[in-house]
Amino acid sequence: MTVENGRVLKIEGGDANPATQNFICAKVRRFGERVYGEDRLLYPAVRQGAKGQGTFARVSWSEAMDLIARRMTEIRDRDGAEAILPFCYGGSNGLLTQDTTDAELWRRFGTSRLARTVCAAPTGAANLALYGKMAGVAYADYPHARLIILWGVNPAASGIHLLPFLNDARAAGAKIVVIDPRRTTLAKKADLHLPVRPGTDLPVALALHRVLFEEGHADAAFIGAHTSGAEGLRAAAAPWTIERAAGEAGIDAAALRELADLYVTTSPALIRCGWGLERNRNGGSAAAAVLALPAVAGKFGVRGGGYSMSNSMAFGVRSASWIDAPEPQTRVVNMNHLGRALLEYSDPPVKMLFVYNCNPLATMPDQNRVLKGLQRDDLFTVVFEQVFTDTARYADVVLPATTFLEHYDVAKSYGPIALQLVRPVIEPRGEARSNAEVFSALAELLGVGTAEDDYETLLRVAGRMPPAIGSELLERGAATPPHGGTPVQFVDVFPLTADQKVHLYPEEIAGDAPRGLYGYQADPATESYPLTLISPATEKTVSSTLGELRERAAMLHIHPKDAQRRGIAQSDPVRVFNGLGELQCPANLTADIREGTVAFSKGVWRRNTYNGSTSNALVPDTLTDLGAGACFNDARVEVALLGRH
Ligand SMILES: Nc1nc2c(c(=O)[nH]1)N[C@H]1C(S)=C(S)[C@@H](COP(=O)(O)OP(=O)(O)OC[C@H]3O[C@@H](n4cnc5c(=O)[nH]c(N)nc54)[C@H](O)[C@@H]3O)O[C@H]1N2
Ligand SMILES: Nc1nc2c(c(=O)[nH]1)N[C@H]1C(S)=C(S)[C@@H](COP(=O)(O)OP(=O)(O)OC[C@H]3O[C@@H](n4cnc5c(=O)[nH]c(N)nc54)[C@H](O)[C@@H]3O)O[C@H]1N2
Ligand SMILES: [Mo]
Prior knowledge:
Dimethylsulfoxide Reductase, domain 2; 4 domains; alpha/beta; 25 strands; Rossmann fold; binds ligand MGD; binds molybdenum atom; globular; 6-stranded mixed sheet; 22 helices; single chain
């Protein structure tokens, strides 16, 4: 940070984190424009006029907090505290800005609980059941791999600090395979690209298992010593020949055979599993089948071999150790069902929604239902935000939040393995306050806690971490990762399951999946809605964060043949629609997406389409097979030229 006269002038990459290597992405470089921009919230305010109109009047913090406390008490006394729904997700993604004083307030007050399932719920459920979320291969070890499979992940947009290591790996002779319905920039450079139809990763992974088991390539010694459930997986894979799986995925059987051959013959082989493959009806089983591959093929035990998924558990620090309040057994609301909860839940109905660290009107499924819910006159909505988001527009009370340049936090990465202290470099702008401060103050006002500032919260949280980690974090600003930051799976780290084995067919989750674990459901495309809409991460935003800086309308990416059939030319305005809603935007014709699939970036704000609907207006609130996650990449749609029907 370059700061002059209390103002941030420049944001650049540092070298304290070995993954950062002095560079950062273009969007965070622009974070100053968010801090000082016209969308920044500076003062508490209350709504004037109709919901969504966007007119607010400034009030003092004490007026705003008194109003919120009064409404919370009234609602608890009349409908019960479960009529209050706290709603949070990404935010600053830190250990202080979520699950500290906020969790203590909600638990002690007895509000509804939120199942935070919008992201990583299916992959998380699979990774937990198979491996207990064992730490994965570190970025620094990628150059040791001779084969790297980027499966449903696009680090060129979603995690650019992996790219130098991928380049080093390639220079050292590694082959790169990309499995993605889009020909991403990495797919173009890859040795092999499998442009699978969305939602078909499960048959593809099972076909690889079938090759391993039936063609004599399964590692019997490893399976015997370190796994359970191999027979269940083998039985599930048996029907999936290369030809059948390739047919289902809409890819060349020869290409899938080539992948199988590469995986069987190459070591160290590394699977980088992402989140693109989880966001559909088969997502949990697909992730489980993908993560099971290195165990069946015997790819562990060498540097650069195995898998990497989320590394968020690599330091073993858990919020459970510092939330000072037992969790009450109150109602659990799945966040993917926000619209439904606001409109349909009756026992009790949701009377108050407290949104923080989240922009649900832009990021949750079934946008029209969420919108209708937010428009309810009898709903009291608080939005605690850094900027005037789509959701904030529907608030009754808006509270201004600090950014990571203005508060303390502890940042735990989930790509690289890092845990760092975040220190404020400027004074909070306007009257912005930190989460820790606001929730503890509200708790004090309600008689269920004591006010503290974020530095006090930091000391409390660091004090509950393993002593070496907590004190190093405070003294040095970063914690030293275990195993030198480069753990080798099955040498340094082992499954954190109870028996330290890989559970290839974990019974405890098999029962949750509607078709059983590894049970596949084919594409439900219909004649009216023949296309599948996906919404991948874009380099322009982090989810919807920084979306306020996007200038032009976001575009629908469509294959030229799909466009031609519909009389659509480059940049034509189109309507993308299904039974849930309609999105109007310009079309971008590109052969970099497979036929039958269309894409519209995740995180677009309502102002960046022609009609205020984004892809989530078309995303159903159906849940994934495992983990009750969101099906963002599982929307059936039709596309037409705008104006014609
Ligand atoms: N710039 C930027 N970076 C981000 C984010 C962001 O919004 N912007 N978001 C952050 C967050 S919250 C997350 S969770 C991560 C996500 O990180 P990624 O997993 O990389 O993100 P996605 O873009 O959701 O999905 C990756 C790829 O999966 C493809 N895909 C879609 N459907 C399928 C499918 O059914 N099968 C397969 N094999 N591929 C499919 C998409 O085309 C996409 O290229 O990124 C983080 N980093
Ligand atoms: N169509 C579609 N939708 C998606 C996805 C997709 O693939 N497709 N991906 C999903 C994924 S992976 C995720 S993770 C979710 C994320 O969805 P959200 O959790 O809604 O994430 P953001 O859009 O980043 O919104 C976070 C908000 O928190 C605010 N914030 C940041 N720091 C703080 C803080 O310290 N205090 C307070 N009070 N506020 C803060 C930011 O200003 C921002 O507006 O989106 C999901 N939505
Ligand atoms: Mo996410």
